[in-house]
């Protein structure tokens, strides 16, 4: 089986060998993916090797955005596309709703929002850094991505209590987490299934 939306070859990269191991097991029936260890500022790839580079949920982990984008420019072919997907402070600050469950985290515990926003780059920061590193912004879009569909409220509660894939919840004590789950349950009561969505911003740039 081939993957990568028609790409002849896909390079899946992460700094963590454990993450790469899990990804390789998940994609064990796909025959055109190479798994490689690398870093956002040093991908160990040849100059001008890549047609399309996607960095998903990465830049909020990077303190040196300029070096990250310089590396992207280095490995991209001429007119190559650079796609960045992450959350801005505005994405993180949206109020909770029956689909935007994450928003309830910050309504219940405002102390979490400062930590969450502090590590996020604004659209203006992304745009200016792209320009400074020789990358031309073509398009910026926001969209809602379905994180998970919970057939019953109990499934959502279990997911939250286990802090599954939600690093910000590790800032809470066990009691605070239980109180948060109760708060969310009160806001989405009798709504099943629960379609949980997160809002992202995507920037599409091109090497000049």
TrEMBL record:
Q: GO molecular function of the protein, one example? A: S-adenosylmethionine-dependent methyltransferase activity
Q: State the Gene Ontology BP annotations.
A: methylation
**Matching Pfam families:** Methyltransf_11
Does this entry carry the keyword Methyltransferase?
yes
- UniProt KW keywords: Methyltransferase, Transferase
List each copy of the Methyltransferase type domain by range. Answer: 8-84
Enumerate the SUPFAM superfamilies for this protein: S-adenosyl-L-methionine-dependent methyltransferases (SSF53335)
Q: Which InterPro entries match?
A: Methyltransf_11, SAM-dependent_MTases_sf
Q: What is this protein called?
A: Methyltransferase domain-containing protein
Give the highest taxon in the source lineage: Bacteria
Is Transport one of the keywords?
Answer: no
């Amino acid at each position: 089986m081939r993957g990568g939306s028609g790409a002849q070859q896909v390079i899946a990269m992460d700094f963590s060998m454990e993450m790469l191991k899990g990804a390789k097991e998940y994609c064990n029936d796909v025959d055109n993916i190479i798994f490689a260890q690398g870093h956002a500022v040093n991908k160990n790839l040849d100059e001008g090797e890549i047609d399309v580079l996607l960095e998903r949920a990465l830049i909020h982990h990077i303190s040196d955005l300029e070096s990250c984008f310089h590396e992207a420019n280095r490995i991209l072919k001429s007119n190559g596309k650079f796609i960045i997907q992450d959350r801005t402070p505005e994405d993180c600050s949206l109020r909770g709703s029956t689909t935007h469950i994450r928003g309830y985290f910050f309504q219940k515990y405002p102390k979490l929002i400062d930590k969450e926003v502090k590590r996020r780059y604004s659209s203006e920061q992304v745009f200016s850094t792209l320009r400074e590193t020789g990358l031309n912004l073509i398009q910026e879009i926001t969209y809602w991505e379905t994180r998970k569909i919970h057939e019953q409220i109990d499934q959502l509660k279990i997911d939250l209590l286990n802090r599954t894939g939600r690093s910000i919840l590790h800032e809470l004590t066990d009691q605070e987490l239980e109180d948060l789950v109760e708060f969310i349950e009160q806001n989405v009561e009798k709504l099943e299934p629960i379609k949980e969505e997160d809002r992202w911003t995507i920037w599409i740039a091109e090497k000049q």
